[in-house]
Structure prediction request, 275 residues.
Amino acid sequence: MSDILLIDGDIIRYRCAFAAEKTHYLVTQIFEGYQQYHEFDTAKEAKEYIETWEPEQANTWIRKETRPVEFALQATKTTMEAILARFDNPLYRLCLSGTTNFRDSVATTKKYKGDRPPKPKHYKAVGQYLEEQYGAKYTYGIEADDAIALDAASLGESVVIVSTDKDLRQIPGRHYDWTTGELGRVSRREAAFNFCRQILTGDPTDNIPGLEGVGPVKADQILDGAQNSVELMERVRSAYRDYGNARGWSEDKSVGYFIEQATLVKIGARFDDNA
Prediction:
């Protein structure tokens, strides 16, 4: 039986559209009465250079260069061809997130994805290219990774999830990261652990707060020793209960906050799902 690739088109869309954009960091400084200029490829390099000078002696200027849309489309074609060539005559479904998302109404503590930077200039063009050339389908009410998770649950062992998004590691089965070439398997226990870990940490990328002060290391400590998915979730619920108690919250408020965060991070959630 041929492999069925469930491809996260959102990741490809962003990466290939951003590939056509280059940010340059120009540092100006005064040295012995003369102004000098130094250009860097990353903000980190510019910052490290400035730290060697007095703050008032150096300033950073940002200049963004955008290449023609053909550059982004060629990057998209190259990426898709490389993914499909990795497998022997695979079937595939390519998913893109539509404009509606049930999480927008679930997120009451913070706006869902409220801190996202502007989309790259060629974002729309890459989406159209994926739709026209590779049959990408848009979701309605859910995101691309939700659609992938739901398909994975129904299609069985022939599925390979193709993405670099750590969120999809909540889904057991085979996973392929085209940027590293790694094809591996996520066990059911590992998937449950990843889900519970993310309820605790939240997801800053999507503006999901989780528990304040709980990062990956502390989350691992909370979950360490749990034997199964039931025990994992008991650890999470206990952590949320303690969090609410420390803030003088009612039981209803603590439970409501837990349900909100769990629903937001759960991949494969649907409108009528309970966390």
